[in-house]
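Example (one chain per record):
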Amino acid sequence: MGFLHEQSEIEVFQWHKSIGITILLLSVLRLLWRLVRPPPGALSHQRPWERATATAVHWAFYAIMLALPLTGWIVVSTTSSREPMSLYFVGTLPYFPGVHDLARATRKALDEDFGLAHKVLAFNVAGLLVLHLGAIAKHEFLDRVAVLSRMLPSGKT
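Predicted structure:
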């Protein structure tokens, strides 16, 4: 029974890595889309601090959407295993450039530092999500301004 349990943990971790790399690729595409197609302008009733907070939260989301999978990829690349990383069990993904070939002590230090960063970023995603959902609720229900429709690609400005 122990082997089956261990095997399923490995498979779950492989899915975690595959999804993380997919998120990284989609985040790069989303950021490029954002740079080509700017978001709608600020709401007319927003105070300056609300506009500044909205901008900061949105850019923090973009930073985390890139940094979270990158830190995970670096952590995975610090392993001493020569096994290639599985990508959806159909292909492989190379280790993060330059990391896997470093000295063992350096890889161990990177594993600890980037592992902690990966966890902190994951908790920050949760915090930003709560902040974002709270702002949506405030605008929709207290201010009676339809912001959800503005978030869609065909949203009204």
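Caption: The mean pLDDT is 88.
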